[in-house]
Amino acid sequence: MESVEISVTGRHVEVSNRVRTYAEEKAQKLPRFFDRVQSIDIVVDKEKELSSVEMIVRAAGAQTFVAKEVGPDAHSCIDLLVDKLERQLTKHKEKLRSHRHPGHSAEPLPESE
After folding, report:
1. The domain that contains 87 carries what CATH number?
2. What is the DSSP string of 9-63?
């Protein structure tokens, strides 16, 4: 299994090693839910007393998955984001597995006589 590229950047704030390590550890769990994940970008921002964290997950052959969370500290935002993205990735994977692919109509084929 190839490794997923994870980047943690700060917008208007320097990301501490503690937050960076925590975010990377949590983000590494996401490819378990959808095996085509290629990269995960985590952007940490500080707005007055609140931390804002955004995760952007790029996967092969799929749209980009994005989630954003604002809260009192970056750690709790990261936890909530991982939960949100787990649901998004799982839902997408289930959609791909379902036999109702786009282009197939639900109407039965006409019977030939």
Report:
1. 3.30.160.100
2. EEESSPPPHHHHHHHHHHHTTGGGT-TTEEEEEEEEEEETTEEEEEEEEEETTSP
Whole-number Cα distances in Å, 61 to 37, 39, 47, 92, 101: 10, 13, 34, 11, 15
Please check whether residue 102 lies inside any domain of the structure: no
Tokens of 17: 């090693």
Number of domains in the chain: 1
pLDDT tens digits for range 71-99: 999 899 999 999 999 999 999 888 888 75
Among 73, 71, 44, smallest CA distance to 56 is for: 44
Name the pLDDT band for 20 (thresholds 50, 70, 90). Answer: very high
